[in-house]
Amino acid sequence: MIYVWAFIVGGLICVIGQLMFDVAKLTPGHTMSILVVAGAIIDGLGWYEPLVDFAGAGATVPITSFGNALVHGALTELYETGWVGVISGIFKLTSAGISSAIIFSFLAALIVKPKG
Amino acid sequence: MSKQKRKPTKYSKSNLSAVEYQNFAKTKEPPRSLLKNCIMAFLIGGAICCAGQGITELYMYIFKMSKEQASDPTVATLILISVILTSLGIYDRFAQFAGAGSAVPVTGFANSVCSAALEHRSEGLVLGVGGNMFKLAGSVIVFGTVAAFFVGIAYIVFGIGGH
Amino acid sequence: MLTGQQTWKFERQPHIISTATIVGPDEAKGPLKDSFDKCYDSLDINEKTWEKAERQLLSEATSLALTKKNLTKDDLQIYVGGDLLNQIITNNFVARELGIPYLGVFGACSTSMEALAIVAQLVSTGAVKKGMAAASSHNCTVEKQFRYPTEYGAQKPPTAQYTITGAGAAVIALDGDGPAIEAATIGKVIDLGITDPFNMGAAMAPAAVDTIIAHMNDMNRTPKDYDLIVTGDLASVGHPIATDLLLKEQVPIQTTQFDDCGLMIYNVSEQPVQAGGSGAGCSAVVTYGHLVDELNKGHLRRVLVVATGALLSPLSFQQGESIPCIAHAVALKGKGVD
């Protein structure tokens, strides 16, 4: 059942992105930035975690979850260590994503040429 | 070339104003196939998310991880797959019809980092790959971080205190 | 000889005595594939980087144009060339190899006719005996510089154009076997406020119209005096706009064939090129390949090539500026046409 909701929720977030491309004529950079900020704000309001429980990967795979993870890290650290946590906790949960993107891309650049 | 004497026909130059022209040009723009693009984005985005769900459950089953523990390896796996597809030259062709369906999932983020790294390899590893890797993904990280900071500040200011 | 406001009518008409066109895989699949001298089947042209690939195309085109007529670089006194890359670096390196006195020009996609006009003027006035004009572009170097890394998955809108991979070179001399250059109209920068770099056809159409009208007025001609008027790269969005604008000013463009190099070089409905071809190489390879061929065979008597360029920089549209455009026209005449 979670697969159905993962499909639907993930698909709908992508449709929102597509509307930003085609109707608002935004660049991919602008669109992704807006979606990340949206994810951050939604988690700030406490609504993103319930969405993850409900839709699983439909909420964690889109780029909005990156915003969610950044906020989550900041707020968890704020709770555990005080106000400095707002800065020190931000990249805690997103480390896997950013590190693997850097490492794998770097390795790819060593062995592969772009094909055009 | 006609040998007859022709009265000189002087054509007048266009005196269209910028605004008039822009409105006219808008009417001549071929319409984007919005419905088709949204359907493709929905189907492909949904499928990538389902794949992500499958990968999470695989990690939970094979490595006996909890749902929270499996989330990091899932993201790393999706990123690896995207880097491989980008390196094979497949991701950009796929993206032309998938649109936001391939750009919005974290695979799109990985594609933006990987494509920039591959492209700028010709300028060397340090200045090329290192200096340009986040050319496209940089805004996502910058805005996400700044937004997270302000959300955190809002929590402090309103005395909610984190969770 | 200045005629009217912006046209050079050549009293002593120079001739295009030799041409060479080298293209990439997508152009080799298009309708004009048989008119090109050499087609490569991969975008990297067997070179390490995209930039070296573009350089190789231009280097081969310039050498071939010389060897076809048993000329050497010592027979030329000027090389005028340009491309789309920053500092027209492709041409700088090729000019280094050629060792001919060099004037680098930047007209974006109008470069081919800008270069041809200048060389024709220098030859016609006796400033040089023989000269070469050339232009090149490469899909990947342009994507990398102006848009996104080539493997990036950005969905291109239907108004976007596909930069052609190719280089075209022509040798011009006063006397010789080949189409004559009757006149050249130098365009003015026209900017009607289009800001979308993915819709260059709409940005450039007004410039093409302005130059065509200026040419007709200066030369006292009408469209019917030409068998074919061809724009450089307005493609499927810009070309109908130009047609409408011309008709609006009562220019009887329908009395002649009005086509566009960006639409001629690709099979737009079958190849994944969105609105059509563009690039400095586009008008160069179509003119120096197909059109010169047709003029030499007598299939065309008089042709007006109106190359169009969008003079934006990668930074200018990020800073919210609109796209200034220009169009340069050169009138070519077949052998035996008076």
Structure description:
The complex is a heterotrimer of chains A (116), B (163) and C (338). Chain A is 77% helix and 0% strand. Chain A has helices at residues 2-22, 28-44, 48-55, 57-60, 64-81, 85-88, 95-111. The mean pLDDT of chain A is 95. Helix content of chain B is 70%, strand content 0%. Chain B has helices at residues 18-27, 34-62, 67-87, 91-98, 100-103, 106-119, 125-132, 138-157. In chain B, α2 crosses α3 (67-87), α3 (67-87) runs parallel beside α6 (106-119) and α6 (106-119) runs antiparallel to α7. The longest helix of chain B has 29 residues, at 34-62. By secondary structure, chain C is of the alpha/beta class. In chain C, 33% of the residues lie in helices and 23% in strands. Chain C has helices spanning 25-28, 50-67, 89-98, 111-124, 139-146, 200-219, 235-248, 261-264, 280-297, and strands at 2-3, 7-9, 15-23, 38-39, 78-83, 102-104, 130-137, 162-163, 166-173, 180-185, 228-231, 257-260, 277-278, 302-310, 325-333. In chain C, the strands form three sheets. A seven-stranded mixed β-sheet of chain C has the order 1-2-10-15-14-11-12, sandwiched between helices. A six-stranded mixed β-sheet of chain C has the order 4-3-9-7-5-6, sandwiched between helices. In chain C, strands 8-13 form a two-stranded parallel sheet. The model of chain C has no long low-confidence stretch (mean pLDDT 97). At the A-B interface, α1, α2, α4, α5 and α6 of A face α2, α3, α5, α6 and α8 of B.
